[in-house]
Structure formats: C-alpha cells, structure tokens
Specification:
three-stranded antiparallel beta sheet; 7 helices; alpha+beta
C-alpha cells in the first residue's frame, strides 16, 4: 500500500465523470491524468500510460446503479419519516430514480440529508476503490457539504 497526497475534488470529478474522459492516478507524482477523446494530446497520453505500466491506475466512474443503490439505502434509513411512503411508492416502476428525486425536492430538509448521505457514500466508494488499487490517501475526504445552494435551487 502506498500513501499518496491526492486532491479530493479532482477525485470526485473523475469518479462522477459521465463523459468519455478516462482518468488515471499517477502513482509517481500524485496527480490525476485525464485523457479526452479527440484532443490533440490523446494519443500521446495513451502511449505514455501504456508504456508506464502500473504507474497509472485507471479510475472507474460511478454509474447509475451506484446512484440508485445509494438512494435505496437512504430511503431505508428514513424510518418513520412522513415522506417515506411517497418514496417507497415511487421506487416501483419505470423512472423510479427520477420520481424519487422529485419527491425529495419537495422537502428541503430531507433533500439536504440525501445530498449529505450521497456525498458520504461517494467518499466511501472512492476510499474502497483506492484501497483495492493499493493506494492510501494521505488525507481524509472532506466532510460532506451541506449543499444549501443546491437545495435552494432545487426547491
């Protein structure tokens, strides 16, 4: 296990990426390298990563299954909350994730709790992914933000 001083915000962006960008952790200089398809340096970066072997660790971004799983885990912890029944009903059928998010937006307090829960779940996922690659971060992930601006915008 090697200890690296990684930028948590860069890690978050790489793990949340929904484009065709490929991100790698450079074990030697503790930076993230991003390969963007179609950019002039794409071939050069791919060659560099291939030649370097295990110096670069590929980051696999989370997918919709991660988001759905986190939402279901969050719903399970809402025992006794007034919004729980609506969320349980929304979880059945097509578009359940989108429906559930719409319901969460109706309750600012619960939406804020969800955002914090989701952020904490992402940090845990990143820590597990790093550990499986033999990397230990030099610092702990930041505390989940309150997302007050996001909650206000969603309301």
């Amino acid at each position: 296990m090697i200890t690296l001083d990684l930028d948590w915000m860069d890690l978050e962006l790489a793990f949340r990426d929904t484009t065709d960008t490929e991100s790698y952790i450079d074990r030697n200089n503790e930076e993230l390298v991003s390969v963007l398809p179609g950019f002039p340096d794409e071939i050069e970066l791919r060659d560099m990563i291939q030649i370097a072997g295990d110096q670069y660790v590929r980051i696999a971004p989370v997918n919709t299954n991660f988001s759905k799983t986190v939402l279901l885990q969050f719903i399970k912890q809402l025992s006794g909350h007034a919004i729980l029944k609506k969320l349980e009903l929304a979880e059945a059928g097509v578009g359940s994730y989108a429906k559930s998010i719409q319901i969460l937006r109706q309750d600012k307090e619960v939406l804020q709790l969800y955002y914090r829960f989701e952020q904490d779940s992402l940090w845990s996922h990143i820590l597990e992914a790093l550990a499986s690659a033999g990397i230990e971060p030099a610092t702990s992930p930041p505390e989940p933000e309150l997302f007050e601006e996001a909650v206000a915008a969603a309301a």
